[in-house]
TrEMBL record:
Molecular function terms, GO-annotated: oxidoreductase activity
Enzyme class: translocase
Annotated Alanine dehydrogenase/pyridine nucleotide transhydrogenase N-terminal domain residues: 4-146
Catalytic activity: NAD(+) + NADPH + H(+)(in) = NADH + NADP(+) + H(+)(out)
Pfam family, one: AlaDh_PNT_C
Highest rank taxon of the organism: Bacteria
Protein name from the UniProt record: proton-translocating NAD(P)(+) transhydrogenase
Functional summary from the UniProt entry: The transhydrogenation between NADH and NADP is coupled to respiration and ATP hydrolysis and functions as a proton pump across the membrane.
Nucleotide-binding among keywords: yes
Keywords linked to the UniProt accession: NAD, NADP, Nucleotide-binding, Oxidoreductase, Translocase
Occurrences of domain Alanine dehydrogenase/pyridine nucleotide transhydrogenase NAD(H)-binding (ranges): 155-322
UniProt EC number: 7.1.1.1
Length: 386
């Protein structure tokens, strides 16, 4: 059994899908060869020597790393024909199991390509949000770190402090920090804002989020009505709500946001562009020097003025940080947790006797993540019945 860890080549990707720690454990499962492409971990602080010390073999390039691979670990989808200088997909042997955040539903053509190449693909961002899957939940592990990092970068961009500073020269008031969207990233942003000494408030549409916000010591700001009482899907995600609800929510937010120093936006609605929660008029009402950190930039952004991938300053002096790939901005920790998520996935579906992965089709987790199997597209949302 040969497992390959490829270098990430997509723009701005700094993470890696295995660390020396997980390589050691993969070998412990009975995998005979773990091949790591040279330089794969460098951006995240893991040297080739550290992988070698853990038992891995270092391969000079993608072709050498993938020759004879049975399992391929990636953060992002491998590059295909015309996507970059290396056609990584062309080197993946038929029958190999490919595991990564492959964006299988957002980019449905990928599944068809994997099927035609005979690659069995598992798209880890599609993992069901169930208790059994928590330790392999890549969305949670990465969102948690994104929420932390967003507040740290917001605090750095803010030209005053977070805590109330009482000095002989006078007092600096605590920063008002407002977190919009209190899922995994938002709750970590609240906790981090509080740890830094900010006066934190937060909003969300899901009724369950209100208690979670309060339990972290932040105040809840938001609009609630009969519609928002049912704003959560069975899977725990926010539903798309009516235009009327969003208009009322915006009224409440508009009054609050003008008094905020740092606003962290994290709101997502599954399978859609991120909702616009901060309008241009709201930005115009904010004080010069205040900061908006838009973690939802990859999904289009929660602020109307966010330029995905950029940090900008508006005419009235508000900084808007719209970087992409927030977990990649804290890549050492993000890689460590992501690598453990993949290790847990493999360990959970490991056949000890065969010393090989075995993914039972009927398993809820497998059913959720598997895009292709034995040359066919099998994901329920990508098959003709869907
Ligand atoms: P997400 O990234 O999809 O969205 C982030 C947050 O934005 C959510 O809290 C959502 O309600 C909020 N939001 C959407 N529209 C909004 C609007 N107009 N205004 C304000 N907020 C808005 O969410 P997530 O962080 O992935 O978490 C989704 C849910 O899944 C949560 O309930 C979380 O607790 C749950 N979860 C469960 C597990 C598990 O049991 N294994 C693991 C992770 C998350």
């Amino acid at each position: 059994m040969r497992l390959t860890v490829l270098k990430e080549r997509r723009a701005g990707e700094t993470r890696v899908a295995a660390t020396p720690e997980t390589v050691k454990k993969l070998i412990g499962l009975g995998i005979t060869t773990v091949a790591v492409e040279a330089g794969a971990g460098v951006a995240s602080g893991f040297t080739d020597a550290a992988y070698q010390e853990a038992g891995a073999e270092i391969a000079a390039d993608a072709g050498a790393a993938l020759a004879g691979a049975n399992i391929v670990l990636k953060v992002r989808a491998p590059l295909g024909t015309g996507e970059g200088e290396v056609d990584e997909l062309s080197f993946i042997p038929r029958g190999a199991l490919l595991i990564g955040t492959l964006e299988g539903l957002a980019e449905p053509s990928r599944a068809a390509t994997y099927a035609s190449l005979g690659i069995d693909a598992a798209s880890m961002e599609l993992l069901p949000r169930i208790t059994r899957a928590q330790s392999m939940d890549v969305l949670s592990s990465q969102a948690n770190l994104a929420g932390y990092r967003a507040v740290i970068e917001g605090a750095t961009a803010f030209d005053k402090g977070f805590p109330m500073l009482m000095t002989a020269a006078g007092t600096i008031p605590a920063a008002n920090v407002f977190v919009m969207g209190a899922g995994v990233a938002g709750l970590q942003a609240i906790a981090t804002g509080r740890r830094l000494g900010g006066r934190v408030s937060a909003t969300d549409v899901r009724p369950a989020a209100k208690e979670e916000i309060k339990s972290l010591g932040a105040s809840f700001v938001g609009y609630e009505d009969e519609e928002s009482k049912a704003a959560q899907t069975a899977g725990g995600y926010a539903k798309q709500l009516s235009a009327d609800f969003y208009a009322r929510q915006a009224e409440v937010v508009a009054a609050h946001i003008a008094k905020q120093d740092v606003v962290v936006t994290t709101a997502l609605v599954q399978g859609r562009k991120a909702p616009t929660l901060v309008t241009a008029a709201m930005v115009a009402s904010m004080k010069p020097g205040s900061v908006i950190v838009d973690i939802a930039a990859d999904a289009g952004g929660n602020c109307a003025l966010t330029q995905p991938g950029e940090s900008i300053v508006t005419e009235n002096g508000v900084k808007i940080l719209g970087y992409r790939n927030w977990p990649g901005r804290i890549c050492g920790a993000a890689s460590a947790l992501y690598a453990r998520n993949l290790l847990t996935f493999l360990t959970t579906f490991w056949d000890k006797d065969a010393k090989a992965p075995r993914l039972p089709e009927e398993d809820e987790i497998v059913h959720g993540v598997q895009l292709t199997r034995a040359g066919a597209v099998v994901h329920p949302q990508l098959t003709p019945a869907a």
